[in-house]
Amino acid sequence: MQTTIKTSVRFSGVGLHSGVPVHMAVHPASAHYGIWFRRTDLDEDALIPARWHAVEDATLCTRLVNDAGVEVKTVEHIMAALAGCGVHNALIELDGPEVPVLDGSSAQFVEAILAAGLQKLDAPVRAIRILEPVEVRNGEAVARLEPADNLSIAFHIEFDDAAIGQQSKVLNMANGTFVRELCNSRTFCRQRDVDAMHANGLALGGSLENAVVVEGDQVLTPGGLRYHDEAVRHKMLDAMGDLALAGAPIVGRYTGKRAGHALTNKLLRKLFATPSAFQMVECSDTMAGRLPGVGVNPADLPVPA
User: What is the H or E stretch that residue 232 is in?
Assistant: First the structure.
């Protein structure tokens, strides 16, 4: 069955890239509503679809823009939280142009969603079953979807900084894996990149409290890493959020190598431009039972480090 949250949940913080304070609320929605954003600071054209075709300029974060040019950016962490908790329908209201970054992960979103509880709706879940491989490349970066019985994510990253280095991870995303393994993995960056972005008026809300900052073999963020492979886990979190913009759960294997927001969106665009590569299906009980978020509860949340 499709789900929504039982009660609204609210968040306050700053945007990672804008540095602008923002208040955000996630509200229940009816069956087949999907996920929408609404800018409460605007009087007109305030609704923005959380869909792949609305993505523009996904270099540093995932940015959605509606037909009137109204935007909301850094949506990947809240989208990952909703998908990872199995929420199919919700209205997200915010009074600014960017989702609050909070601690740089999805953990606080997930905690609030699970505390609110999920409401089953009288409608079956429809999913996107991958029928044949689809792949996109940009130099050495690769993103790929291929057939599988449920969503799995495989990711590989390579950085010169020894604090990150080469990391690989593969996870079956069924039944709450996102909540247990990925949701509290924070965004990461190198100090020299932070300095360059600040000099260009970017990442103005970034700090050591909402990102893992490294330089060489040093982790500059107080408290260090939550996992030895936190960086690749966060890239998987981002992929989960970007794939959620497909508009329905994906049943297939996603593989990313040095991939980012833009390449995952390019992959979705190629998928939907290739009708033979996918099929919209009504989930059987068996298939639905393997979707992310099924059976998850607050006890699955990682213990704070």
Answer: helix 230-243
